[in-house]
Amino acid sequence: MCSDFFIPDPEGLVPTADGYFGAFGGTFIPEALVAAVEEVAAEYEKAKSDPAFAEELGALLADYTGRPSALTEVPRFAEHAGGARVFLKREDLNHTGSHKINNVLGQALLTRRMGKTRVIAETGAGQHGVATATACALFGLDCTIYMGEVDTRRQALNVARMRMLGAEVVAVGSGSRTLKDAINEAFRDWVANVDHTHYLFGTVAGPHPFPAMVRDFHRVIGVEARRQLLERTGRLPDAAVACVGGGSNAIGLFHAFVPDTGVRLIGCEPGGHGVETGEHAATLTAGEPGILHGSRSYVLQDDEGQITEPYSISAGLDYPGIGPEHAYLKDSGRGEYRAVTDDAAMQALRLLSRSEGIIPAIESAHALAGALEVGRELGPEGLIVVNLSGRGDKDMDTAARYFGLYDTDARVEADASADGAAEIQGDAE
Amino acid sequence: MSGTVDLLNRTLAAARAEGRAALIAYLPAGFPTVEVGIEAVKAAFDGGADIVEVGLPHSDPVLDGPVIQTADDIALRGGVRIADVLRTVREAHAATGKPVLVMTYWNPVDRYGAERFAAELAEAGGAGCILPDLPVQESALWREHAEKHGLATVFVVAPSSKDERLAKITAAGSGFVYAASLMGVTGTRASVGEQAADLVRRTRATCELPVCVGLGVSNPEQAAEVASFADGVIVGSAFVKRMLDADGDAAAVAAVRELAGDLARGVRRSG
């Protein structure tokens, strides 16, 4: 199990000692946090070479999270993907319903090793917040979750889950009132409480060592998927596809495939209402290099370095930054990134629900929409693995409003009278 | 044209020669408007500030508490641009002959271009820059341009900074050292803790630079207390709060002058 998340530092797959992936990464943090971040880095280095840490994390992943997660082939969905074979890596089946738990359990163990008693975290869709609240309940840690006000409304179910688990949820009303602002507020908390608090950062952004550490805790996704695909199909996929907000589930899937140069690594960014409208969160497609939340990467910003407000129907992808390793993969040409609109994602969400009986998170639906495109580009010989990073329960209110599924909505009747088969075939176009 | 780092050094040395701490005010440019912001900086000097830090507002001020966040927000909604910040520096320095620094986050400077920003800040008569999210290990590029253009690079040190790191930071810094009095974001506090005095002592052991204390200082009593162990007292949120609470632009400018006067008396009655 140990080898599934800790890598023996193969060349080119790890950042430099100061946390750079090519031109991206680094440590752009206030002096007050330097000691704490260095402590995290030092403790993580120690933990990586401690067999007891790997053993405990491995046991938690197996017995608590339920790893390895399933790999599901989805032939009825794949009919709409140019006939390519499509497999889903089922991170939605993990305990708490998304990939986020992989990283959270690793960092919760690290928190305990550092002797800290309180954990703070940011959350967008609420999945990282729920996973963090879960781990804090499991380990008896105090827990405060920062969440943008806009997101507390659109992901109300997850707010209730976090509170049920004993966490304090703070609704952040500054800025765009979404994920970026939740991170700002968490940093402010951390600066003031760093002596006893660990900031359990939820994605592969932030200052070194977070991009590499969070990546390592998630790379089990790709390691398992690669092994499962080889067992099932006897070959590597043509493409690995994942959604990217901050980029944690994508890097988790991609990383084991980076040395396999025949495998295209395709990240699907939130295109919102379309990149051309300006209402999107497609950072790699439309952003420029800059510094946000502790590292240099691509950022959505204006010509004077003010961060612009992102937009996505998906709370988990509604972020104007991106992990530095993705910026590196993009600039080196190893990774490909494309924007997927709200509408394309929502159609893919419904298509998977109705063709395979799997309701994905809206975040993951961006990857599914991307896979439909990629499949058509590859044709019937293609083989695609998609990271189904989370389940869609939390998104049912958004989806019900989008598709008119509530009884009070007149659109229900129209929807019910439509030809189901035609919908499955037509709506993902 | 070269920046005014020498003026900054002379100003701090003069305060030391008088046996007192310097008073350093922080005011965001463009707040509540560019014009009133410029008047506020002049009023701070008029009231008795020795040095002013002009804030370049940022959309994501992670090191600032609610007061300065609010001011930044007002300034950005008003459309403040870097040219306005530089004009604030130029006019305040030209009118008073006193040292004016810029304090901001790294991304606006990085995006504008470190070399271009340093050149234009120097051209405006600026004395230096404080970039609290640019730690020393990432600062080589900025320092190269700052030095070339006669600008000070003021680093922040924190109570959590270990002695070895303090030495590394102060070796790279110039002008003065900004000692954060406590672990936290900007904002007024009821008291300035003992850890500030300890940090000043540990910082002084590493360098000859003046050590000025900021974060949490809001009134003459605190200013006097800090002045008893530091070379300078930095006050920001208290000025901004007075301006936010004032009824109209003229009252806001007058409130800055009045607070600067009170604080200037505070830094003179220490010891």
Number of helical regions of chain B: 12
Overall mean pLDDT of chain A stands at 92
| Overall radius of gyration of chain B | 17 Å
Sheet/helix structural class of chain A: alpha/beta
What is the name of the CATH topology of the largest domain in chain A?
Answer: Rossmann fold
Please give a structural write-up:
The complex is a heterodimer of chains A (429) and B (271). Chain A has helices at residues 2-5, 31-48, 51-65, 75-78, 100-113, 127-139, 149-154, 156-164, 179-193, 210-218, 220-233, 248-254, 283-286, 324-332, 342-356, 362-378, 396-403, 411-417, 420-426, and strands at 20-21, 24-25, 71-73, 85-90, 118-123, 142-148, 168-172, 197-199, 239-243, 264-272, 288-292, 295-299, 335-341, 383-388. By secondary structure, chain A is an alpha/beta fold. Chain A has 2 domains: 20-65 and 100-214, Rossmann fold; 71-97 and 219-426, Rossmann fold (3-Layer(aba) Sandwich), CATH 3.40.50. In chain A, the strands form 4 sheets. Chain A has a 6-stranded mixed sheet, with helices on both faces. In chain A, strands 7-6-5-8 form a 4-stranded parallel sheet, with helices on both faces. In chain A, helix 3 (51-65) packs across helix 5, helix 6 runs parallel beside helix 8 and helix 10 crosses helix 12. The longest helix of chain A has 18 residues, at 31-48. Chain B has 271 residues and is an alpha/beta fold. Chain B has 12 helices and 9 strands. In chain B, helix 6 runs parallel beside helix 7 (140-148) and helix 11 (237-245) runs antiparallel to helix 12 (249-268). The mean pLDDT of chain B is 96. The A-B interface holds A 18, 26-32, 34-36, 174-175, 180, 184, 187-188, 191-195, 288, 290-294, 299, 301, 303-308 and B 58-63, 65, 69, 73, 76, 81-82, 105-112, 132-135, 137-138, 155-162, 165, 169, 180, 183-185.
What's this model, at a glance?
The complex is a heterodimer of chains A (429) and B (271). Chain A is 45% helix and 17% strand. Chain A contains 19 helices and 14 strands.
